[in-house]
Automatic annotation (TrEMBL):
CDD domains: RRF. NCBIfam families: frr (TIGR00496). The lineage of its organism: Bacteria, Pseudomonadati, Pseudomonadota, Alphaproteobacteria, Rhodobacterales. PANTHER family: MITOCHONDRIAL RIBOSOME RECYCLING FACTOR PSEUDO 1, RIBOSOME RECYCLING FACTOR. It comes from the Bacteria. Residues 23-185 form the Ribosome recycling factor domain. It is found in: Cytoplasm. Responsible for the release of ribosomes from messenger RNA at the termination of protein biosynthesis. May increase the efficiency of translation by recycling ribosomes from one round of translation to another. GO terms for biological process: cytoplasmic translational termination. This is Ribosome-recycling factor.
Length: 187
């Protein structure tokens, strides 16, 4: 009976993969001097008395590497969309051209690039901490299983598996961070 005790490593792996996915989303929101439709996704516009995602009041396009355009469907919302962009903290000055709002993406200076690289490092460290917390949960499950009759040899095998899974995910975080920092520092 004691040999049948197992730990749900699939759950631990899913949670670690979820932490990696959250890191990728945070990295996608970092502006690297290149236009991306995802950079305006979190912006909410006060449309018709309700906060509405910007992509539900107009079409977001990226016609060139340093330009995002938003074709607003309802001309009465143009001012509200412009205001939402200015207040979003993106640091971009929108230019209104008829029913289209143009967002020229300025080149990043060296100081801003270093600052963004540090922010990326912070995001990565938070993900590493989350992965280590998941490992700790797994180790706690193993301690509980040992007190419920798991053999010491089985416990050591499971601990090695959980540790290996953790090391693999931490390595992925480091590789993703290195790639993002290279992207940020690229002129």
């Amino acid at each position: 009976m004691a040999d049948d005790i197992e730990i749900d490593t699939g759950d631990l792996e899913r949670r670690m993969d979820g932490a990696m996915q959250a890191l990728r989303q945070e990295f996608a929101s970092l502006r690297t001097g290149r236009a991306s439709a995802s950079m305006v996704e979190p912006i909410m516009v006060d449309a018709y008395g309700q906060p509405t995602p910007i992509n539900q009041v107009g079409t977001v396009n990226v016609p060139e590497p340093r330009m995002v355009t938003i074709s607003v469907w309802d001309k009465s919302l143009l001012g509200k969309v412009e205001k939402a962009i200015r207040e979003s903290g993106l640091g971009i000055n929108p230019v209104i051209d008829g029913t289209t709002i143009r967002l020229p993406i300025p080149e990043l200076n060296e100081e801003r690039r270093k600052e963004l690289a540090k922010v990326a490092g912070t995001y990565a460290e938070n993900t590493r901490v989350a992965i280590r917390n998941i490992r700790r949960d797994g180790m706690d499950q193993l301690k509980k299983a040992k007190s419920n009759g798991m053999s010491e040899d089985d416990q050591k095998l499971w601990q090695a598996e959980v540790q290996e899974m953790t090391d693999t995910h931490i390595k992925k975080v480091d590789e993703t961070l290195e790639h993002k920092q290279q992207e940020i520092m690229q002129v």
